[in-house]
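FIELD: query
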Amino acid sequence: MKRLDRFIGTILFFISIYYVYEALKLPWMAQKSPGAGWLPFWLGILMAILSVLLFFSTVRRDTSADSPVEWPSGKGLINVLVIFGGLVLIVPLLEAAGFALTMFVFILTLLWILGNYKWWICLGTSVLSTAVLWYVFKVWLEVPLPSGLLRFLD
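FIELD: result
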């Protein structure tokens, strides 16, 4: 595991350097606010720092402290597959059904199947989460979201 962590730390470090290099090509400021290059630059710096920490944590770690990776089985494996399947399904549904409807159904399904909550908690949380996500991206960040079946959200 130590060798794998060193390898991953090294690969991530070089990826983060390239990421920072590409971010520097983007505008740093846009009028009086951060530009398109600001966030990717700082994320690249953070990734570089974390990859160096990962690499050097293997130097101090004893090999006997490594434990083998245990993959989920039974219900845990089903949960992972449900989440992965849901993420795969929402990609094509986003354009057809729209952001709000797709996210509502996705969150509702995850809460209901994986969380075992009461129906009204799942429904309320799904509505509130979808509304917050829609507001943040559509209104606050002005990201164009697909409206799909709900044309009035344009």
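FIELD: remark
Residues 75-153 form one domain.
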